[in-house]
Amino acid sequence: MSVRRVVGLLLGATLLLAVSTACSRPEVQPLVMGAAPWSNTETSRYAITNLNGDFAGTLQYQIQQADGGWIFRREISSSETQEVISVETDDGVFLPRSALLVRVYATGEERVNTTYAGGQVDMELTTVQNVTTNERNHIPSDARDQRTVLMLLRTLPLEKGYSARMNSFLPVANLLDRVTVNVLRREEITVPAGTFDTWLVELDTGDSETRAWIGVDAPYPLVKFTESRNGGLFELEAFEAR
Fold it and tell me: Tell me: the pLDDT tens digits for 215-233?
């Protein structure tokens, strides 16, 4: 077989593989969020398991309606530290207005106050030594606060093959991500809170991946999730809506 024919066959195979891969990718849809599926006050509690399979603490999400919007409160308790985050968003497309992070250690606490105004983000950081600094950043005006993204999956029209993108910003690390949301499949899973029919959702930033299991039935609870950045596993223990 001639060299020219071999090269031609290789190029053809490469092109066929590229076309096949492109066709297998789901079509990315415009990001459209529906109405809030949660009640005026909702609480979810999760058990945290570390990479070694050991119990590492608890996480609690609480969502409350307030001032024409929502407050997303997340509290993580472990043997070493306690972290409480509150993010206030609007009621329409859940864009952030402000956020407060408090980390409590044996030696004191650190705080990060964040104010969002369109594409401008102002942060006030106070260390354990009570030293305060200020920072300003500019981000896309449609960016959501990263600490709310998992709960906001519940507002999306999830189904097999669904794909969309959103901007996500983490103030503490000044980390702006373009997140691709893909529904991989429907899956029945069992966690401490019971057995749930869920959508397995992948959140891909390009350098990290989170997987979340969202209930198929209203109010579409966040049943379980894993994060590649910290390796933690979070499983629903209790859910209350009122």
Answer: 999 999 999 999 877 789 9
Task: Give me the CATH number covering residue 108.
Answer: 2.50.20
Residue type for 242, please?
A: R
Does residue 20 sit within a domain? no
Residue 21 lies in a domain: no
Q: Is 1 part of any domain? A: no
Instruction: Locate the DSSP E strands across the chain.
Output: 41-49, 55-66, 69-77, 82-90, 96-105, 108-117, 120-126, 132-138, 144-145, 163-170, 175-191, 194-204, 209-215, 222-227, 233-241
Q: Are 177 and 128 in contact (CB under 8 A)?
A: no
Q: Which domain holds residue 49?
A: 27-241
Write the pLDDT tens digit of every residue in 51-67.
899 999 999 999 999 98
Q: Give the residue from 37, 45, 42, 76 showing the smallest Cα distance to 193.
A: 45
Model confidence pTM above 0.90: no
Task: Name residue, tokens 């993108």.
Answer: 165
